Amino acid sequence: MYYYIYMNMSMSMSNNDMSNNDMSNNDMSNNDMSNNDMSNNDMSNTIFDIVIPLGPNDKIVIHKQLEYTKKNIIGYRRIFIISYDDTLQFDGCTTISERIFPFSMETVSKLHGKNNRNGWFLQQLLKLYAGLVIPDILEQYLVVDTDTLFIKPTSFYENGKPLYSYGNEYHITYFTHMKSLHDELNKMDKNKSGICHHMVFETKYIKELFAMVEKYHDNTAAFYDIFLNCVTDNNGSGASEYEIYFNFLLSKHPDDVIVRYLPNKSVNNLINIDSLNKSINYVSCHWYSR
Q: In Å, how far from its chain's centre is CA 278?
C-alpha cells in the first residue's frame, strides 16, 4: 500500500534529521516520563506518547500548554512536538520537523491553491501520519491541539481501552468529505462529534483506515493525496481528521473504545484559567478568538 512506501521513506529521512534534536532532548524527556508514570501508574495501565502539532499562530501559547500537559495528562511516556520551525526546542520534549513527512504546505497549496486554510489541512495530516513517521513513537499516541490545555488531571485509558471524548459541532462538509473517502464512512451518532481538540490514535487502526481508503480509490494514490483531493471546500471547513477517525472507530471497532464526555470551555485568553469551575477538564483558546 502507498502509506507503507511513504512510511519507509519518511523513517529513513527522519532518522537523519532527528539525530541532533533527539540527543539534546532524550534525557529530559525520559526524566519527564519517569516522573509522570511513577506518580500516576495506578491510574492508567496503558502507556502512550503525546503529539502536539505546532504552527506559527500558536507559538505564544505553547509554553503554557506544555506546563499544563505535563502536570495534568496522566500516564504518558514522551512528548513529541511537530513544529513548523525545527530549531525550536522545549524542555522535556522532542521536536519533530514537519519536513520529515511525505507531504508539506506546498503539497496542500498545489492542490488547493494558496489560502489561509492550507496550514489547517496540513496539521490534520500531520496528526494522522504521526504514528507512521515519528521514530520510536508508541503504538498509541494522544494528539493535543496546541491551543488546548488540560486544567485538571485527566486519564485517557480505562482497563486498557482508549477513552474518547466528544463534542457537539456539526459541519455537513466534513461528512461529505468522509463519504468521498469511502462510502462506509458515516456519522455514527447524530448527537456526538469527534471534534474536541484532542484524540487518542492507534497506529494499527490508522493503517487499517488508510488501506481501506486507498483500496476504495483503486490504490492509485497515497491516503494524503486522496484526503486533499476529496476536499470540496478548501477555503473553509472542508474536512476533519477527528471526525474521520472517531466515526471510523465507532463503525469498525466499537468494542475497543470507550466514549465519555469531558467538561470543557472555550476561552479568549489564558489568564486565571485555574480559577475556572473545578468540573472543567480542559479549555481551548483558539488563535482567532485571542
A: 26
Please tell me the distance from the alpha carbon of residue 40 to that of residue 276, in angstroms, as a whole number. Answer: 24
8 A C-beta contact, residue 245 and residue 188: no
Q: What is the CATH number of domain 2-289?
A: 3.90.550.10
Confidence bin at 28 (pLDDT 50/70/90): very low
Query: Can you give the pLDDT at residue 277?
Result: 85
The grid coordinates listed for 102 are 511525505
C-alpha cell at 101: 513527512
Return the number of other C-beta atoms located less than 10 Å from residue 260's C-beta.
Answer: 12
The residue type found at 225 is D
For 106, the grid coordinates are 506546498
Tell which phi-psi region holds residue 266, choosing left (phi > 0), alpha (psi between -120 and 50) or beta: beta
Rounded distance between C-alpha atoms, residue 101 and residue 12, angstroms: 11
Q: Pairing relation of β-strands 282-284 and 264-266? A: parallel
Q: HSE of 50 in the Cβ direction (CA atoms, 13 Å)? A: 30
